[in-house]
Amino acid sequence: MKISDMSVDRISLDNKDLLTRILFNGIEDDGENGDVIFVFGSVSANKYRVPHAVELYKSGRSAKILMSGGALEVPEAISMKNRAIELGVLEQDIIVETLSKNTIDNVLKSREVLDEYFGLNHIKRILIVTTFYHIRRCYLTLKTYLPEHIEYSLCPAQDKSTRPTNWWESQQGTQRVMKEVEGLIYYTKNSKIQDFEV
What we know:
Strand order of the largest sheet: 3-2-1-4-5
CATH topology of the domain at 28-159: Rossmann fold
Organism: Paenibacillus shunpengii
Largest sheet: 5 strands, parallel
Number of helices: 6
Order of helices and strands: HEHEHEHEHEH
CATH architecture of the domain at 28-159: 3-Layer(aba) Sandwich
Number of strands: 5
Shape: globular
Helix content: 25-40%
Protein name: YdcF family protein
CATH superfamily of the domain at 28-159: HUPs
Structural class: alpha/beta
InterPro entries: Cell_Envelope_Assoc (IPR051599), DUF218 (IPR003848), Rossmann-like_a/b/a_fold (IPR014729)
C-alpha cells in the first residue's frame, strides 16, 4: 500500500505499529560522506538538530553545513549558524538559507542557495539532518524537487519524546506523529511530494 492510498481516519493509536512503520522503518544512517549537511530549521533546532549536524561535521562526514529556515523574526538559520559556531564549526563552512517558512519551502529556497554555492550538478550526496519523525518527509521532498542524480544519507536527530520506541508514551510525541503522518498523506495525495510504499 502506498501512503497516498491511506485515509486520515486510520491515524490513531489503534494503528501504532503502522504509524511507526510509516515514519521510522528503514530510516538509518548509512555512514556515507557527503557534499553538504542539510539541517532543516525549527524553533527547537538548536537543541537536537544542530548538535547532531556538528557531530557529523566534526567526524569528517562533510566539510559544509547548510542551515535552512526563516520562520522567525530572527531567521532560524541565523540562530542555528550561531549555535554551530559556538559548538566549534568554522563560520566559512556554514551556508544559510533564511527565507523558507516550511519543509517544501526549505527545499525550494535551499535549491537556489546550493546551486549558487556548489552548482547542483556537482552535488553527489546530501546528509539530511532533522528530528527522527520529520526525516521521511524531508527525504521525499528533497527527492521530489532536487535533481535525480543526488543521493541522500538519513541522519536523524533524536529528541526525547518522539523516538521510534517511545512516541506513543507522551501527548507531545503522539501529536507529532499523528500530524506528521497526516501531512504525508496530504502531500502525497496532492502530488506535492513523492509517494512511497508503506
